[in-house]
Amino acid sequence: MEGPPTPLDGCNLLGLHTVSNLIDPSLGTWNSTLLHSTFSNETCWQIESIRPRSGLPDIRRWALTKNGDFSVKSLHHKLNLHSFPLTVHHRNNIWHKIWSLKTIPRIQMFVWKLYNLILPVKDYINRILHTNDPLCPFCDMHNETVHHLFIDCPFSRAVWFHFHQATHLHLHHDLSVEEWISSWFLGNNGQEQEIGWAVKCATICWHIWKVRCKVVFEHVNPSPRDVACSIMPYLFSIQPSSPIHALQTTNDQTTDNVSYWTAPSFHVIKLNYSASYSQSVNNVGLGFILRDHAGRVLGARSLSVAASSAEESDGLALLTAVQWAVTLQLRNVVFEGDARVITRYLTSNQGTVGWRTKNLLDETKILAESLDSTVYVYIKKNVNKVASILAKKARIMLVDDTWNHQPPSFLFESLNADIQSVIMDVP
Ligand SMILES: [Zn+2]
What we know:
This protein has 427 residues and is an alpha/beta fold.
């Protein structure tokens, strides 16, 4: 019931000042005869569904909260509902906006599922299959609904917290999921939000969902900071007019002072590549080492090829690295090499490279679009030691070798040196 009940026209309200006047003092129940002479049947039914507080004084109850106590939150929620009227036209408009998000189709599809509440969260699955496992995999305290997972869960809120712009979202945490997603596109005053804002929200949600699936199916145990760090390379790439995978730059100036290898963020793989060129024989050795956030080796390669210059060798090394990442179906990859001119050309289109190298790098760019995110980083040669050793071996021995997980023993010393300096690589 919203607001006070309206009495019937022409009824006698004399002596009716408080709710207690409608209660039979001897029985402690509603005075049914008086009620029906005062209000409509529907209002009477609503009143009679409330259990009277017999013998206790009247108190005011707030209709917008479950416990009847007033809260600013409930009032805010009510006001927000008026700010986001979800008419059919509005909903169609939001669908159009979701499918127009400047991001990869996978994220568009994800947001569409999110908006329509058809993500297979545990609460939803439990209602259908009675799995008796409805709890949120992050906090293990509340049922995993879409609303809880992305808006209310302390874990997800901690992830959002890393993105300062996102904190205002939680002023709206009483909104439904539909209203919340609508708010990505429209401000309270009905004006368009900052370009790319919705893409950022979509990206953060998508990552929360991916990590949630890893927790459920692979029993990993990430921290909110790990998740935030894995999202950052994506957010840095978002330009108003560019797709998410197009360019992710790491300023090569900042790596000049770095004297040790750093591990990538959680859920990101780092592929170090290097080329060893000998002018006398035009013979090139390429070396590759693939490691995760803990510095674990996921693969290593030595490859012998031919090239006409040192620059072309470096281009060939990067192209081969990207080809390998695509073959392995990696998603988020940092390609780290010791050829500054190559990295600069890819990240900023600055500097000139020979036409042979340009062809290689243009091919690299196109190929890298099939990965979810790519970051190109320049590091000094002595920091890229493992890949350099593999490249040199390939050049001198003319070998093609691939190692999966178990690296060759001649790399142990350099790998150990890198492990000693493993730190979180926060972009
Ligand atoms: Zn939770």
